[in-house]
Amino acid sequence: MRWLQRIPLTVRFTLMAALHALLAAALAMLLYRFVLHHVAPSVLLAVLLDLPLLAYHVRRMLAPAHSLFRALAGTVASYRDGDFSFGLKWDGGGELRELVDSHNALGDVLREQRTALVQRELLLDTMVQNTPVAMVLVGPSGHIVHGNLAARRMLGEGRRLEGRGFDELLVDAPDALRDAFERGGDAMFTVGDADDEDVYHLSRRQFRLNGRRHELVLLRQLTAELRRQEVQTWKKVIRVISHELNNSLAPIASLAHSGAELLRRGQHEKLPIALATIEERARHLEGFIRDYARFAKLPAPRLEPVEWTRFIAQLRSQVGFRGATEVEGVVRIDVAQMEQALLNLLKNAHESGSAHEDVELVLRRLPDAWRVEVLDRGHGMNEAVLANALLPFYSTKRNGTGLGLALVREIAEAHGGRVSLANREGGGLCVSMTLPA
Asked: What's the catalysed reaction (predicted)?
């Protein structure tokens, strides 16, 4: 039968079809002649006895192909069920050999892809389960589809969360967590008392999975991170204060000793210089401490309606600038705080290396806000300074406290506004403060 397997598949099936047709035609002809011409019964019997034998040989020739087709159908069904462990073997050649080889190659590719997918799923599951962020996936019915280990510890006392209603889970949750969910969106909340409290960040994202709406809830504990940041901030504050105190107290102590020596020697004419320097360093230290106290104890703004014309005139009486001469409108601000903020910006502009006549204040009316811009033609700032200029304790000045711009930002944000810095074309800096109308 191997000679048959070497015949192309299409030729084989064509021959088999033709043979079946010939057999059927011969049988029909014999029956027709038997009925009409009374063919000898012995001839008809001989033909009828040969037909089963011929059919047997035909089925035997087609049996390997039928077995292969059944195997192909079985492996395709296995692939559909996700089982890619099957392969086929065919000793013949021709188109069937090509079909079997292609089928086995497809199985190898599917098997490799399935293995890679399983490995990625295991990696992703390991990452999700071991992340310190509590992750809860809520289905469209409000029941939990998945909750990682952190979520079990935080919300379920270590028990599995899958299948439980998320609203039922919140019943036993801390009041602060329930309040954060009721407010909607992202939020930060604190759990515990003042002696033992934890700070959490809540994030909620909705998306569609298989055409159905799901919600991903993330709860991240920020206590340790905030404490590290707090410690780093205090260390920086201590370094800045220590530096300023040393810069003032060291020359004061030295000049006091020098003054005592001058008195002992009777050189009274040099005493006023030493005393003036001591006074200057003491006043600098006093201003430094006053600035820190003002920044640390900035009260909530007491808003009141103020006409820009009157406010700008009061500001111009304390520091020089050009622009903002024809301003109409009313803004709700804390006059003392806003005056302090703009004085800081205008003084910085004068100290930037800009000519005094180039320091300008521009006031613009936006659809739902006011924009106040302080412009100069000084040296501007490089990218690193621009990125850190609004941070507390950051200063590029030798005797700076790093609180001027930080205080401006604090005042603007307390008023519901914001502050931004940008270099100007042609040199200089633009500090923009946007305030609600």
From this structure: ATP + protein L-histidine = ADP + protein N-phospho-L-histidine
d(CA 339, CA 336): 5
Q: What does the DSSP 8-state code read for residue 276?
A: H
The encoded tokens of residue 199 equal: 């700070």
Q: How confident is the model at residue 430 (pLDDT cuts 50, 70, 90)?
A: very high
How far is residue 273 from each of residues 73, 260, 268, 276, 362, measured CA to CA in Å?
106, 13, 10, 5, 43
pLDDT in tens, 39-69: 455 555 555 555 565 555 555 655 666 666 6
- Tally of residues, the chain: 437
**Read out DSSP for 45-100?**
HHHHHHHHHHHHHHHHHHHHHHHHHHHHHHHHHHHHTT-----------HHHHHHH
Query: Residue 70 has which token pair?
Result: 């059944």
Say how many C-beta atoms besides its own lie within 10 A of residue 118's C-beta.
10
Q: What is the dihedral of CA 128, 133, 139, 143, to 10 degrees?
A: 110
Q: Is the pLDDT score of 374 beyond 80?
A: yes
Q: Tokens 């065919």 appear where?
A: 90
Instruction: Count Cβ atoms below 10 Å from residue 312 Cβ, excluding itself.
Output: 19
Pair 79, 110: CB distance under 8 Å: yes
Q: Provide the token pair at 368.
A: 């739902």
- Residue 106, amino acid: L
Coil vs helix vs strand at 413: helix
Which domains, ranges and CATH numbers included, belong to the chain?
2-113 (no CATH), 131-221 (3.30.450.20), 226-296 (1.10.287), 304-436 (3.30.565.10)
Tell me the Ramachandran region of residue 323: left when phi exceeds 0, alpha when psi lies from -120 to 50, beta otherwise. Answer: left
Residues 40, 198: Cα–Cα separation, whole Å: 108
Q: What 3-state class would DSSP assign to 219?
A: strand
> Which string of b and e fits 322-337 if b means at least 16 CB within 10 Å?
eebeebeeebebbeeb
Q: Find the Cα–Cα–Cα–Cα dihedral 412, 433, 398, 322, rounded to 10°.
A: -130
The reported pLDDT for the residue numbered 243 is 67
Rounded-to-integer distance, Cα 216 and Cα 272, Å = 72
Largest CA distance in the chain: 166
Looking at residue 183, the DSSP 8-state letter turns out to be: H
pLDDT in the model for residue 375: 93
